[in-house]
Amino acid sequence: MNKVTCECGHENPYGTYLCESCGKPLQDEGRLANMRYEGVARRSQTYKRSPVDKVWNFFSSVKVGIWIIVLLLVTSSIGTLFPQEMYIPPGESPTEYYAAEYGLAGQLYYDLGFHNLYSSWWYMLLVAALGISLVIASLDRFVPLYRALKKQRVTRHTAFMKKQRLYGEKESGEVDIDQLKTALIKRRYKVREENGNLLAEKGRFARWGPYVNHVGLIIFLIGGMLRFFPGMYLDDYVWIRDGETEVISGTDGEYFVENNQFVVEFYDEEENDILQPALMRADAPVVSNFQTSASLYKRSSEGSIGSGTELEHVKDHEIIVNDPLTFEGISLYQTDYKMNELSSFTFGVETDAEGETEALEDVVFTVDLNDPQMFYEFDNGYQIEIIEYFPNFYVNDAGEPTTENRVPDNPRIIFELFPPEADPETDQGEISLIGIQVNEELNGENDHTIRMLDADMVNVTGLVIRRDHTLPIIMVGGAIFMVGLVQGSYWHHRRIWIQQKDGKLFVAGHANKNWHALKKDLEYLNDYSDLPEIKDQLEEDKAAETEEGGTSSHVRAQQ
Amino acid sequence: MFELSSNMLYVAFGLYLASTVFFAVSITGRKFKNRSGEEKNKSALLGYLSAILALCASIAYFVLRWIAVGYAPVSNMFEYTTALGIAMALAFVIIYPIYHNRYLGFVTMPIVMLIIAYASMFPGEAQPLIPALQTNWLFIHVITTAIGQGILAIGFAAGVLYLIRSIDFSKASKKVKAIEFIMFGLLATVAYIAIGTGFGAADYTAEFSYVNEFGDESTIEYYLPPIVGPNEGELISEQGFSPVVNLPDYLRSDDVNTLLWSFLGGIVLYGGLRAGFRKPVAGTIQPLVSRVNLQTVDEISYRAIAIGFPIFTLGGLIFAMIWAQIAWTRFWGWDPKEVWALITFLFYAAYLHLRLSRGWHGEKSAWLCVIGFALIMFNLIFVNLVIAGLHSYA
């Protein structure tokens, strides 16, 4: 590629706008110099041949980057049109749900895969494209920009000065360069002097803001990607009844959590004067707190295998929403609950002799619905056996009684009762099926009836078990991103060049944004020394509008 | 305490109105001169002082309500929308001394009033906090977001100012239609507030029995006269009349009815202004702002976005993610509100890239500021009220 030689003798790479050494514009474009990236040549503009160049050039384009952002923005919005699959009511089949709920549009939404839009391959691809664009576009600009700003010279070509947006010149009277220098330093400019010329610069580090925040974003995206690697992410669920202890998955059976008690608390109308109107209007009581009093246990390392698990108490914690129990990177969150789950039934036995029922006081027994004892023997000779137990009874398609799961939501028990005179080994007992509001005799007329006397209930807490090893990376990425964003947004890079040449005084100014502040700085300098009148050459182009507000002093004078 | 807080909000509203009037006078009566012939127009200064007092009263409302209810008053539609209005006023009070642009006050103050008035259409009573909201993250996340959005809204105000000043209204064009659409939207909001407040003050209710979307008999209450009724609706209250048409069951007929009223009210206001001045509404305002320096307004809108964007990102995404990790077990869950915050973030990111790298200054940039604010409003109103999700608190 041809180098471009400036009149100052410096050889610039092809594609350079402003000579890297003296700043003379090498490509004549309009009235103002192209100061973007200091007019340096970027790789994407220099090399255009090989496939690698083509890919590089494609992703280095801000235009392409903006298109990726816009595509992400538009597709993301489509995903909120109807709920995503994870938010449809539990138990609903997505195949039917979308069509039933939203008609043809819903069916189409489902068929196009929009019900899982954010995990679709093409959405992932868009995010990946954004990541690649971030890396390439940043490198393409950062490297040459860094070099250009690092080695910028104080003395610039007159053409460079004249093509700055803020510019002024005059036939030189004497200016006191030292005084200007002091004034600029007072305003916290960094000033360099060379042959009676000045370059004052402030806030250069703001120029790195965009690159810093892009680095943060890339780290963030990498962190998000790591979730798909095994072991990085754990998402599980555990239901624990009051008083019970369960193993915590993902800990290799090392940790256990006990639910001492789960409670739900409600707002009290009487106590809260100020909330009264809202509470009266609400249809149902408003929950003020969900809370699990939990204890964490660790399996003792001393006990040898097979000798039973010895649990060592680690700590107690009241788990509430917004305050999970956390240990070794694992957190247990309060997310669900079930009040009044059946836990045990207590039964008694009645005899039906000659139309009169009489309760047998000695034959009373309790069945634990979560872990029933299968055989009961009484002092007066009665024996009762559980033949079959269905915790959550239903009749399946084949017409057979069975259970849906092990949760005692609809328990049914088949009992076989043996009076004292019967022998369980040889005789058949009286068989009956018992559940809530159900008591059927299964083998003809029985002499005895098993009656449910009492039912005990228990509360159950639902905890989410979560471990996310990607969090530290995500947090670092987010923090760097914010630092870069603030760095680039709340500071700005300003430069003032003051130059004396051939008996003339030239002043030029450039800011990467917030020209308003730079103009004020120049006004301030004017108080110290007699500078030429500085014009905003961009504003002159739109001369019609200068009547008000051009500079703050102008407006202030009117007030 | 609670009552005092509500009264402070009324005071603030009055002061915002005063500020609007002062800024309007500072523009239209700018040639006032005293006896010695000097220009003596102090209205802009008075406008700014009123804005400061209004902000103080607003903050008093906020603090008193916080003390009274015991949590940061940003937990429902009334509280959040009010906070957004206050945040916009705060941003204005900070930005005005830098640029001394009275036109910005002339545009910003009415928008602040409109936002606060709109907020008052939602129930303003204290509400019990659900467990997920009982944490300091409520105020950290929400107040930061509100301040960010308030500053971004200044970008919108400056953008609208730019457009009204620069568009050629002498001939019909797409631009004229677009800016008139914005004017219509603002006027329809005014109409909604006026109609809602009017019928609310008269305690208007009409009750219908109807068949809901599950095919069950139910009742529904209207607070505005029913132009459209619910599915198979029967009027059962004394007040009210039979609607012109009954809607199918999958539409929320009371909301559609309210929307229809706002639309009709908007048409009356807009049509009246348009017929009265025989000009596009924005074209009628244009002569008032003919002295606006476009360069300055463009810079104000850009700076507002540049300052507001990091704050919005911090509050609306970063703090939001931290809280979501603590309360909902995951920092990101593609909840509609989260997605729309991301969309807003992406949109302003695109704006900044277009501006910095593609040279989209002036008019293009102003249009983008308008669209960005529309996104913020969409996320506040539509996503909260229409799209069901974890953020549907109102």
From TrEMBL, chain A:
Q: What is its main location?
A: membrane
Q: Name one GO cellular component term.
A: membrane
Q: Where are the transmembrane segments?
A: 64-82, 121-143, 211-229, 471-491
- Pfam family name, one: ResB
Q: Where is this region: Disordered?
A: 539-559
Cellular location of this protein?
A: Membrane
Ranges where the ResB-like domain occurs: 62-522
Return one Gene Ontology term, BP aspect. cytochrome complex assembly
Looking up InterPro entries in the UniProt record yields:
Cyt_c_bgen_Ccs1/CcsB/ResB, ResB-like_domain
Its keywords, alphabetically, are:
Cytochrome c-type biogenesis, Membrane, Transmembrane, Transmembrane helix
This protein is called what? Cytochrome C biogenesis protein
Which species is listed as the source?
Alkalicoccus luteus
Q: Tell me the lineage of the source organism.
A: Bacteria, Bacillati, Bacillota, Bacilli, Bacillales
UniProtKB/TrEMBL annotation, chain B:
Q: How does it sit in the membrane?
A: Multi-pass membrane protein
- Any one annotated GO CC term: plasma membrane
Q: Where does this protein reside within or beyond the cell?
A: Membrane
The Gene Ontology terms for molecular function here are: heme binding
Which InterPro entries does its entry note? Answer: Cyt_c_assembly (IPR002541), Cyt_c_biogenesis_CcsA (IPR017562), Cyt_c_biogenesis_CcsA/CcmC (IPR045062)
Give all residue intervals belonging to the Cytochrome c assembly protein domain.
Answer: 82-187, 293-391
- TM ranges are 6-25, 45-68, 80-99, 106-126, 138-164, 176-195, 259-277, 304-326, 338-354, 366-390
The biological processes this protein is annotated with in GO are: cytochrome complex assembly
Keyword tags: Cytochrome c-type biogenesis, Membrane, Transmembrane, Transmembrane helix
Q: Which NCBIfam families does this entry report, sorted A to Z? A: cytochr_II_ccsB
The protein's name in its UniProt record: C-type cytochrome biogenesis protein CcsB
Q: Which organism is it from?
A: Alkalicoccus luteus
